[in-house]
Design brief:
Shape: globular
Largest sheet: 10 strands, mixed
Number of strands: 16
CATH architecture of the largest domain: Alpha-Beta Barrel
Bound molecules: magnesium ion
CATH class of the largest domain: Alpha Beta
Strand content: 15-25%
Order of helices and strands: EEEHHHHEHEEHEHEHEHEHEHEHEEHEE
CATH topology of the largest domain: TIM Barrel
């Protein structure tokens, strides 16, 4: 049986976003796997865990024992479920699935039971500065047969006007929640009127409202028939979901910040969400994500894995393989990657006519060109976009 001979972290930022890829090498010539450990804003901490703790733990272990090795990594630090540790574990875990696929000569979705669908539907982001800008960007996607769009006027929290901020307030990204909420209702009215009923619409509140405001917005948006409304509440306030769900039929998607199974168990078994959309590396990789998908299926809850630019292409490929297999797949978020990403990561999933296709190579089917990756060094810096504030200067969730 092949054993683990080396584990390394590859840090690269082809689009300016810090990506962390873990490469697990075996004692068999040319047999290796790749996994996503991308925690874009704490990249050196993740690298440290992989290089100094997981690597010495795993050298000479049997690559086939994914389940056992996942639990070994999970329990090894005694304290469990932290974001940094989970991402580090994910890098190794996905790489082991990639290796298993390569040994079997099969794409990973085949190891899970095969395809439930030939290709994966996805949505793209539309962030516009004006309503006509939003319309124009949707038109561009419609020409590519993309019928699911996430629409935001501005980005998270909208584009604030006339902020009356006290002098000497702290620097940060300011927003006005009331204005954002009212602008969002106007945007949906405009987009539905312009495009009619068939376009599928998504919106991300990104935790920017107070619970009662989020309930108000979810109710107001009901008549525009959203595909889902994302992160209406911060994870600390999910107890409000019972009130939200009892008042509106707007479908709810939550989960990209989750780290710990306790954060989703009750939401799923009490059917308080419609879509679970965790960031696969953030919960510890492919192994726990696969179990979560199966658990959610029992309760009629669909998957919509997190797929922005701060998930590496390896993570996106893992999202695609899981989405091909899961009977309860709902929707996938897809980032429009630049040419630099396609160069550094050969074997990206194939996007065509509103669907994503796996390339059907063994494993996750995706590789990394380490020489090219070096051309795009990461930058470790203070994260600014998360320093979000209300007009009076209060710091709030980003
Ligand atoms: Mg989101």
């Amino acid at each position: 049986m092949p054993v683990i001979k080396n584990i390394k972290t590859i840090l690269t930022a082809p689009e300016g976003i810090n990506l962390i890829v873990v490469k697990v090498e075996t004692d068999q010539e040319g047999l290796y796997g790749l996994g996503c450990a991308t925690f874009a804003y704490r990249e050196l901490a993740v690298k440290n865990v992989v290089d100094n703790y997981l690597k010495p733990l795993l050298i000479d272990r049997d690559v086939h024992k994914i389940e056992d090795l996942w639990h070994l990594m999970h329990n090894n630090a005694y304290w469990r479920n932290g974001g940094i540790t989970n991402n580090a574990i994910s890098g190794v875990d996905m790489a082991l699935w990639d290796i298993k696929g390569k040994i079997a000569g099969l794409p990973v979705y085949q190891l899970l039971g095969g395809k439930s669908r030939e290709a994966v539907p996805f949505y793209r982001h539309v962030n516009g500065t004006t309503l006509s800008d939003i319309v124009e960007k949707i038109e561009t996607f419609k020409k590519q047969n993309i019928n699911h769009v996430r629409i935001q006027w501005g980005l998270y929290g909208g584009i604030p006007k006339d902020l009356n901020t006290p002098p000497n307030s702290e620097p940060g990204v300011y927003s006005n929640p009331t204005q954002y909420m009212l602008d969002t209702i106007k945007m949906f009215e405009h987009i539905r009127k312009h495009f009619g009923d068939e376009l599928e619409l998504i919106h991300d509140i990104h935790e920017r409202l107070m619970p009662s405001e989020a309930i108000y917005l979810a109710k107001k948006l009901e008549k525009y028939r959203l595909f889902f409304l994302e992160d209406p509440l911060p994870i600390e306030q999910v107890a409000w979901l019972e009130q939200l769900k009892s008042q509106t039929a707007t479908p709810i998607a939550i989960g990209e910040l989750f780290n710990n199974p306790l954060e989703w168990t009750d939401l799923i078994k009490n059917r308080l969400i419609d879509f679970i959309r965790i960031h696969i590396s953030q919960i510890g990789g492919f192994t726990p994500a696969r179990k979560l998908a199966v658990f959610a299926e029992q309760f009629g809850i669909r998957t919509a894995w997190h797929g922005p630019g701060d998930v590496s292409p390896i993570g996106h490929a893992a999202n695609v393989h899981l989405s091909l297999n899961s009977h309860n797949f709902g929707m996938l978020e897809w980032w429009g990657f630049s040419d630099a990403i396609y160069e550094v990561f050969p074997g990206m999933p194939i996007v065509k006519d509103g669907y994503i296709y796996a390339n059907n190579k063994p494993g996750f089917g995706i590789d990394i060109n380490e020489t090219l990756a070096k051309k795009y060094p990461i930058k470790t810096r203070v994260t600014k976009w998360t320093q979000t504030r209300l007009p009076d200067g209060t710091l709030v969730n980003p």
